[in-house]
Amino acid sequence: MADIIQLLPDHVANQIAAGEVVQRPSSVVKELLENAIDAGASSIKLVVKDGGKTLIQIVDNGSGMSTTDARLSFERHATSKISRAEDLFRIQTKGFRGEALASIAAIAHIEMHTRLEEEELGTEIKIEGSKVISQEFAAVAPGTSIAVKNLFYNIPARRNFLKSNQVELRHITDEFQRVALAHPSVEFIYYHNGSPLFNLSESETRKRIVQVFGRKTNEKLVPIEEETPQLRISGYICKPEFAKKSRGEQFFFVNGRFIKSAYLHHAMMSAFEGLIRPDHIPGYFIFLQVDPATIDINIHPTKTEIKFEDEHTLYAILRSAVKHSLGQFNVSAALDFDSDPNLQTPYHFRNKSPNNPEVSFDSSFNPFKVKGGQPGKVTGARNGNNGWQEIYVGLESGLGNAEQMSRMNFDEESMETGELFEESVGSMVTTLQLGRKYILCTIKSGLLVIDQHRAHQRVLYESLLKNLTLKETVSQQLLFPLVFSYNKSEIKMLHEMEESLGTLGFSFEQWEADQVEIKGIPPFMKEDEVGIVLDSLLADFLLKSKTEAVSQADMLAKSLCKTMAVRAGDTMDSTSQLALVNDLFGCKEIDSSPFNKPIFITITEKDIEHKFI
To answer: Quick one: 122 exposed, middle or buried, by C-beta within 10 A (0-12, 13-18, 19+)?
Structure first.
């Protein structure tokens, strides 16, 4: 039998490696930014076009490379970071595997300019699909500039799987923010399609966080600092009242490298237990310094997952440090079990002397006196003895006293409750709210049990979708505009949704780098709900745009109906119940909510009869 095992050509091997290292344009940005950091750059510029599909360019003022190094950097497993196997256990740099540039060059057009500080001329290299097209001397600035064009041009299937430009841009922005937060001493400039998105000057950690996420973030931050023989913890956590339902401001950095760790995240959630709602997530920016020999960062091609030598100790220290920081800065209440708060004198009463209470009364008052001044009988004392017969009015019918009093009580109750059912008694439909969660409705075959939250979601969803489709704009103008603060990424998302939001009734007056002013809102929305609705909308927009390909109108309608629908626990009067039932059965689809959950169930007479067997 002939030999069947053969070595793969280099360009094929590089494309296979690219499938692990380069998943999307943001992967390229991450690898190139980390290379620039390792080169000692103090200023880095990122230029992106069409969400990274057309161009990704990184320009830094780092050490640069010689002509020979520039050529070797595109070979597989060529690196200046390690030379022996033992070096893998003392990794201090970002990129070290020697796969990034070779993998990127296999699936894109690359043009690199680099020069050492002490040399007069630099090097220009052009590569297409792992093939070196040209290499020559060039007059370039010190440092390195790498332009990656037409990503996945030779792998159409991979290119077709990329999302829209806006989604890919958000992934790139996420990677940019992670690197920028980890290195506040480096200046970063970020452009997309010629427009500046970020211009981050050299600063310290807290200021860099504010630069990235907006001025409003500064009031949220609580510092955390802890040092033990095992590790050093520093950074900031967000106050519990600013916790959100969605992820977005959760960052772990180990030795200056961003990582993802569900185990450490659980430690943070445990530290905030009892301070935030169960479905909310706190924000944090945690920087951990550990001995490089105690971690393994080579377990995943993207190097975002780390294996710790002693995870349990790290968990306990981190949880304790967060709790200590929350208590130290009076974010959580301090409890003194030795004192009884009931015995504490209020501060504003401590210097006051007690006052004796004074009792005033009329000593000549006699409740048994009549107007003439003579004592009378107890019965009818206030009006004299006349009129005592009025008490027995209505008893001439011959009914017994007990039966008459019972009927009087029944009539009294009927008068109180009759108004609730007056409209429904004369109509074909009778409704009743059960447990402030369900609406019971009588039908010919039995009983209909409707989930009021899901039913209202369906009604709002179809109404909002109709307005977005037909562009029927109705806006409620505000006397005093509302001002909200967001980070730059959220402002950009609101810009993308501005036209659709305008169709719903939102009117934006002024845009700034981290603030937006709203002068008009939809007529069905209250002013105090606007901030909650927009926060939920941004969270859903960010989550769904990364995971699903949905239309903007559908996403907006689903997000708004979820936030604004009547919730379980809300009391509804009979008129509102009947209106919701009528609106529901006027919808095109009544069986399920916009999130594919059943809206109602039916209980037939046979089902009820079986219960009495």
So the answer is: buried
Q: Three-state SS for 177?
A: helix
Q: Give dist(CA 300, CA 297) in Å, integer.
A: 7
Is there a contact between 464 and 561 (Cβ–Cβ < 8 Å)?
Answer: yes
Contact 173, 52 (CB under 8 A): no
Per the domain annotation, does 580 fall within a domain?
yes
The model's confidence at residue 332, banded by pLDDT at 50, 70 and 90, is low
Which one has a higher pLDDT value, 378 or 69? 69
- Mean pLDDT over 466-470 rounds to 83
Query: Tokens 């969660």 — which residue?
Result: 437
The answer to whether the CB of 432 falls within 8 A of the CB of 444 is no
Which residue carries 């599909």 as its tokens?
53
Residues 98 and 239 occupy one common structural domain: no
Residue 394 · residue 404 · CB < 8 Å: yes
Which range, of 87-91, 210-214, 591-595, averages the lowest pLDDT?
A: 87-91
H helix or E strand, kind and range, residue 116: none
Q: CA 313 to CA 264: how far, in whole Å?
A: 11
SS3 category, 39: coil
Q: For the purposes of burial, counting CB atoms within 10 Å of the CB of 229, is it exposed (0-12), middle (13-18) or buried (19 or more)?
A: exposed
Per residue in 565-587, pLDDT (tens digit) is 998 888 899 889 999 999 998 99
Q: Which residue's structure tokens are 């920016």? A: 285
> Same domain for 441 and 577?
yes
Question: Are 455 and 592 in a shared domain?
Answer: yes
Q: How far is CA 135 from the centre of its chain?
A: 48
546-549 long-range Cβ contacts below 8 angstroms, 24+ apart: 546/163, 546/167, 546/170, 546/171, 549/163, 549/164
532 assigned to some structural domain: no
In this structure, what token pair is assigned to residue 329?
């800065």
d(C-alpha 313, C-alpha 294), whole Å:
12
Comparing CA positions, the residue from 32, 54, 53 lying closest to residue 44 is 32
CA 316, distance to chain mean position in Å, is: 27
Structurally, how many domains does the chain consist of? 3
Helices (H), 437-551: 452-470, 488-496, 498-504, 530-547
CA distance 193 to 57: 12
Task: Give the pLDDT confidence of 297-325 residue by residue, as tens digits.
Answer: 766 666 678 888 888 999 999 999 999 99
Same domain, 196 and 126: yes
Q: pTM value? A: 0.70
Q: Three-state secondary structure along 507-532? A: EEEEECCCEEEEEEECCCCCHHHHHH
CA 416 to CA 420: how far, in whole Å?
8
Angle at alpha carbon of residue 187, lines to 183 and 193, rounded to 5°: 115
Round to whole Å and give the CA distance between 52 and 31: 14
Residue 210: what pLDDT?
Answer: 92
